[in-house]
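Records of this kind hold a single protein each, on a pair of labelled lines. Below, a sample record shows both lines together.
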Amino acid sequence: MRRRLLALAAALSSLPLLLTAAPSAHAADPTTMTNGFYADPDSSAKRWVAANPGDGRASAINASIANTPTARWFGSWSGTIGTATGAYVGAADARDKLPVLVAYNIYNRDYCGGHSAGGASSPSAYANWIAQFAGGIAGRPAVVVLEPDSLGDYGCMTQAQIDERRGMLTGALAEFNRQAPNTWVYLDAGNPAWASAATMAQRLHGAGLRQARGFSLNVSNYLTTAENTAYGAAVNRELSARYGYTKPFVVDTSRNGNGSNGQWCNPSGRRIGTPTQLGGGAEMLLWIKVPGESDGNCGVGAGSSAGQFLPEVAYKMIYGY
């Protein structure tokens, strides 16, 4: 794994854009402290397979989805958050694997979209929650994707609400820097279809990107890896031109095997993408959204709630129909 990272670094170093890269918030590299990525043993896909061994779809879902390293999402449903994150990274650490966690509990979450509305009850409640989240990880190696959609979901917000959100994200990054020295945090930057690269660079910088390892793209979306890597490079050009630094980025490839048909909420005909790995045009390609988990009461997931595992959707996504 170390050799692959060095090879990637050597390739990227030839690009003038990245010569101005800001130093990482941490000296430690969690990918070299572990031996591969952690596959969540209690993912929704894994639980479904275990509960439905006789189902004709179970074998394919088990082989193609349930055992692929995928992020675990943490929010209000996670109970005492420091205990929850501590237990998860502890289990991964015991196996010498790198866990990927998603923090998804920001105050006024999904304020404009609505399908995943909720989150902490106030900015101060969020500050307490995210401090405990980071404290649970402590010194163990981890990757954290910080608050998907939070910088794309500005369309219906007032400037005061936007400023409030930026403050919460900046505070969250400070907590990880203080409490979780072996964690790489990626501040979510939406996807190429949401905001221009110039706009997203401004939003990332305003939310404290300098404190983060980098930014994440395409979380729970379907756009191709090529589209996302081009967008990530464009965001970095804007960061370099405006602020004098660039950052690594990661791409969610869990459901982008067929690309996007223009719909973001449970579209039909999508396909699983490249499994979690280092490199691939970004710092990492990650499965952040579990294939088969609903985006909400919409599309082929009509009647479902966000996060609900839909085996038929998962099965069709394996084969792309």
User: Anything to note?
Assistant: The first strand starts at residue 72 and ends at 74.
